[in-house]
Design brief:
Shape of chain B: globular
Largest sheet of chain B: none
Strand content of chain B: under 5%
Radius of gyration of chain A: 25 Å
Radius of gyration of chain B: 22 Å
Distance between the termini of chain B: 46 Å
Number of strands of chain A: 4
Number of helices of chain B: 16
Shape of chain A: globular
Oligomer: heterodimer
């Protein structure tokens, strides 16, 4: 009978051992960090043939601020921002985009919100589907009122209730059932978030992903 | 017979009981401190997670309180579980295992208490950061950037202590648990530092962020928590059953394959997305090949257990450690195979973006990792406080509440996710209707989570009972 065969542990020194262990890990580090870093690190926006402007366009300051509000409030845990090709899902049929999105679409996005969950619809092109700021404000304030049956939580805390002084504010939400003499207005964060949502538009054409 | 004695038993036999008692004494305060703080985060994290599932059913619930809004509570709860519970529970267990396996006392345990305190401070600041609206929305790295130096310093101290203990060991063969522990203590800081640097300090462009974030997520689960849990599982299985690990000579092969493949498989969560095709292909191949280490580890853990149970049918009832580790090992295999399943393009299409993924993650966190660490706690804590568990019945209650809760929650999420996926793929079904068909499954899964929470409270009762008993008699 032979004794148990145990993993051969060389009486190698500690440093040799740690080197071996680290090199196994390095494979993935090279594959998923280093190579993509160099391959994708030099993508840049290009000039649109028709309009002559750069695509993807860079966002306004307001919209960039809204991106931070989007991050701080965890929108990405329910909404993706990627359109898959027709072969990979119903994204295009559902009207979430006319073409699949590609790496170049995201070159200037920081942080990026590709997303892993679709409890809510994809938002890659929400600015095109819902261009109206008021729609977004009403929706954020009380989602189920705008989209019946929506499980989206209300973001009422992004709005404030204030006493009407003189005339009603121009940006007050047209809501019923608000106490007499009061109005609901968006905070700065809500306005930035809506500006960001309105800016989401990947309908331009790219050489590697033409919007046919 | 020589071949029925494993390395581990040999190791245990040469160490005198006196030596063991001394080693345990040096571990007592730091390891207990890690465990107590871990339990705090476990219960608060699970409670917060339960709150967030309620918000899915009642969208207006707490909507006026920014701090408790769904989009902040959910990531905060995940990170409390991950960084608050799994980290200290796993590291405490690792320190104890390393001191046992290398026959060395912990040198200056006070440093570990300091490091543990710093770690908890980091987790606390990070949690408050997320809840106050400074979260990053990068999965598993949601804590605001300024917590990274705190967490890294705390980790570095603990890591140096763990590796240092290993360096001082007497020469001899390494047990498989030592391989996993030492490797994990090297891998985590590499992954964490790379990710923090390239995502926050000097951010990379566009989709590279997503690739790195997914690589970090895979490393955290498969090359940090998993090795810590597997080290415990291998050790206690052999230790409690008194048997050699079945198919032990293959265990190291599984270790190397896991080291090579797990990180690479991370990016397969972007299948269909705007990521270069070669990268996805590499990830998919790595994800599918994971089946080999899974089978080996499955044979090692469950093979040993089934042989031991054949010999002693009531083994699982007698040993809470084995009972919990058995559940953890089965969950590990299921999680692994669900992961392989998700790696195939053709199958991924049906479950991508759905609650299936959530179920998969919950099974990994609660079913595999938490249950395995509970098994370790059931063995280690009595030896540290010199008392046995006060009411054995509470152990059974803890087990069944948790086990049933996990089974209910995960089954509901996976089935609900598959239905959600089938409906998502069919553009003829309006999007707004899909949530209606998933809703019953979500309600069931919340109930499952509630059972898990109750189970944890039961554990807390028996843990604090034992603790106070030991304090009272010491005085």
């Amino acid at each position: 009978m032979t004794g148990p065969r145990s993993p051969k542990t060389p009486q190698t020194g500690f440093f040799a051992l740690s080197l071996i262990i680290l090199s196994a890990f390095a494979a993935a580090w090279i594959g998923l960090v280093l190579v993509p870093y160099f391959q994708l690190g030099n993508l840049y926006p290009i000039q649109d043939e028709i309009t002559g402007s750069l695509v993807p366009p860079s966002l306004s300051g307001w919209a960039e601020e809204g991106r931070q509000v989007y991050a701080a409030n965890g929108c990405v845990y329910c909404h993706s921002q990627q359109v898959r090709s027709e072969a990979m899902g119903s994204d295009i049929k559902r009207g979430w985009g006319k073409r699949r999105t590609v790496a170049r679409d995201y070159v200037s996005e920081y942080p990026i919100f590709l997303g892993n969950s679709r409890v809510g619809p994809d938002l890659s092109n929400i600015g095109v589907r819902k261009p109206d700021a008021q729609w977004h404000h009403l929706h954020l304030y009380d989602p189920a009122k705008v989209v019946p049956g929506s499980p989206m939580p209300s973001y009422r805390f992004l709005y404030k209730k204030q006493r009407v002084t003189g005339e009603r504010s121009a940006d007050a939400l047209p809501l019923e059932g608000i106490e007499e003499g009061y109005e609901i207005v968006p905070t700065k964060a809500a306005k930035a978030l809506v500006a960001y949502l309105q800016s989401l538009d990947k309908t331009y054409s790219l050489p590697e992903a033409p919007s046919s | 017979m020589a071949h029925s004695i494993s390395d581990i038993q040999v190791a245990e036999n040469v160490s005198e009981p006196v030596e063991r008692a001394e080693i345990d004494a040096s571990c007592r305060v730091p390891v207990l401190y890690f465990y107590v703080s871990a339990l705090f985060w476990l219960v608060t994290g699970t409670a917060l997670s339960f709150l967030s599932t309620l918000q899915v059913h009642l969208p207006g619930f707490l909507a006026d309180t920014a701090w408790l809004s769904f989009g902040r509570v959910q990531p905060a709860a995940w990170d409390m579980l991950g960084y608050g519970w799994l980290f200290p529970a796993g590291m405490g267990t690792a320190l104890w295992l390393l001191s046992r396996l290398s026959h060395s006392k912990i040198w200056r345990p006070a440093v570990l208490i300091l490091a543990g305190g710093l770690w908890n401070l980091g987790v606390f600041i990070g949690t408050v950061g997320i809840l106050s609206g400074q979260g990053t929305s990068v999965r598993w790295l949601e804590f605001p950037v300024y917590t990274a130096p705190i967490l890294f310093t705390a980790y570095a101290l603990i890591g140096v202590w763990a590796v240092g203990m290993f360096c001082l060991r007497r020469r001899g063969r390494l047990y498989i648990s030592e391989w996993y522990l030492i490797a994990a203590f090297f891998w985590f800081p590499w992954a964490y530092a790379t990710s923090c640097l390239l995502l926050f300090t000097a951010p990379v462009e566009g989709v590279v962020q997503a690739v790195i974030a997914s690589w970090y997520g895979a490393d955290l689960v498969w090359l940090w928590w998993t090795p810590l849990a597997l080290a415990a599982a291998y050790y206690f299985l052999s230790q409690v059953t008194g048997r050699t690990i079945a198919g032990y000579h293959r265990a190291l092969t599984a270790f190397w394959l896991l080291a090579l493949l797990a990180g690479l498989s991370g990016a397969d969560q972007w299948i269909g997305g705007p990521i270069p095709a070669w990268l996805l292909t590499v990830s998919i191949i790595a994800g599918v090949l994971m089946v080999i280490p899974l089978l080996i580890i499955g044979e090692n853990l469950l093979g040993t257990l089934s042989l031991a149970v054949k010999e002693k049918p009531d083994l699982l009832k007698q040993s809470p450690t084995l009972r919990f580790i058995n559940f953890g090992s089965i969950s590990f295999l299921i999680v692994g195979f669900l992961g392989v399943f998700e790696s195939f393009r053709s199958l991924n299409k049906w479950v991508h973006f759905t609650y299936f993924t959530v179920g998969y993650e919950q099974l990994a966190l609660y079913g595999f990792l938490s249950m395995t660490f509970f098994g370790a706690l059931y063995y280690i804590v009595p030896r540290l406080v010199d008392r046995s568990w006060p009411r054995p019945r509470l152990i059974g209650t803890h087990f069944w509440f948790t086990a049933v809760g996990i089974a209910v929650m995960v089954t509901a999420l996976i089935l609900g996710g598959i239905i959600q996926g089938i409906e998502l793929a069919n553009a003829a079904i309006p999007f707004d209707l899909i949530n209606g068909s998933v809703k019953p499954f979500l309600i069931v899964s919340s109930l499952g989570l509630l059972l898990i929470l109750l189970g944890q409270l039961v554990f807390l009762v028996s843990f604090s009972g034992m603790f106070s008993l030991s304090l009272r008699t010491k005085r």
